[in-house]
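Researcher: Last one for today. Full complex below.
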Amino acid sequence: MRVISEFTKGFWKDIPPFRLVLGLCPTLAVTSAAKNGLGMGLATAFVLVCSNVIISFLRKIIPSEVRIASYIVLIASFVVIVELVTQAYFYTLYEQLGIFIPLIVVNCIILGRAEAFASKNSVIYSFADGLGIGLGFTISLTVLASIREILGSGTFFGMSVFGKSYLPFSFLVIAPGAFICLGVLLAVMNVFKK
Amino acid sequence: MEAHFYVSSSPHIRDRESIRKIMFSVVVALIPALVGAVYFFGARALWITVVSVLTAIITEGLIQKLRKVPVTISDGSAVVTGILLAYNLPAGCPYWLPVIGSFFAIAIGKQAFGGLGYNPMNPALLGRAFLLASWPVRMTSEWVAPRGGTLSGITTWTGATPLNLLKQARKVIHHKELYTDNKIQESFRILSDISSSYSALFWGKVGGCLGETSVILLLIGALYLLYKRYIGLEIPVTYIGVVALLAWAFNGTKGLFTGDPLFHILSGGLILGAFFMATDMVTTPVTVKGKLIFGAGCGVLTVFIRQFGGYPEGVSYSILLMNLTTPIIDRYVKPKIFGHKKVE
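Model: Here's the assembly. Have a good evening.
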């Protein structure tokens, strides 16, 4: 079944930040706490699924000379939906993610899937691809953010893990910690791939 | 015919000096400072150094085993990293601090880049920067007053290390409107008392990281390395010279050229940094001109951080930042190729 393989490739073979090494800006910037990582991942996944479906649906109508501009307009519409919804219902998350929600428009995973997949495949495959890659991205962000939050702040989704005596590893919460944590995860995944 | 041409990267001239011999000479050169640290701060200084060195050696061996490359723990480079990291810690710090710092220095600072010779930055300083970013309170509040002395090296002032004292006093004087007259008077008194601390700073009877305080003991080790020609004078002299010049010019409170250059040379980690860390062969430029640029850059950054930065001391960060510029310096400061002439 091709639908299933298009869906499952997003979880290991093409898992975005680790295997494709795409979408690193949100991966590094918002993963200081597990909640932010999960929220950012789900927001991106929603935009990715919607944009993949609609771009695949319109792939024969969009003239290829202006396709990137058209994709951006379509993606931007979904990002506005996400932005307004998070602002209305998850205001603290909206404040913490800040500029990174509008920046989903230029997330290279979304544009990459639109250009490389949705513009060439049918709606059903594009949906499976978008859902798989989107959930893979969500899992990656949540895992990275969990490691950083558990060790860096001693909490997990805001709950204390090690108790009061734990001295937080605050290096992991700041930007250089994000780079080193991502690098170590990539190295570990490369070992497992072999 | 072709077999006679070997293409390899520099160095092309080799002599009988081995990494092992150089590294153990550095260890020997660092021992006087350790003796001083044990005398001033107690046996704990020795144990922190031992813990740091052991962790560095074990980490190096383990990672080289994991990477399936020859284990080179006997070349002494991990020992030097361990000692230098320990010298950058306060004597009262908990023992897990050198363990984590040493592990990070070797694992991420050195082995992740490919091992000795491939590390872009001084691993020991990277370990220190990492610890300072992770546990700033542990790294800056566990000072131990030296035997028979005060943290500041001045008999009338007990709290804060010398550079900390200077920073606080300067802050008060520059924002007079925010402080009481009493506080301002006190700050001026600190500044005038600072020159009475020269001898304490020179012998090492001040608070600070365990291996950085004693100028005389560090200089003895540095002289040995200079005599063996393992380090050159280019970087230390430009580094210390630029610090002295800029501190004299800009660090005063009564206008230009009223600063205290001698205090700036003797305090903090400048001597340790200039002779033992800014002269690391791997992470500093190759040419003489490059070394002069490197030393001057370190000096400018150190004074800049001491004067405007959030931390009282800037030696470690300035060397790390200049380490990163080493490839660029080496690229643009190439010696003229023999026999070549510039085209007019």
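The interface with chain B takes residues 167, 169-172, 174, 176-177, 180, 183 of chain A (CB under 8 Å). Chain A has a mean pLDDT of 90.
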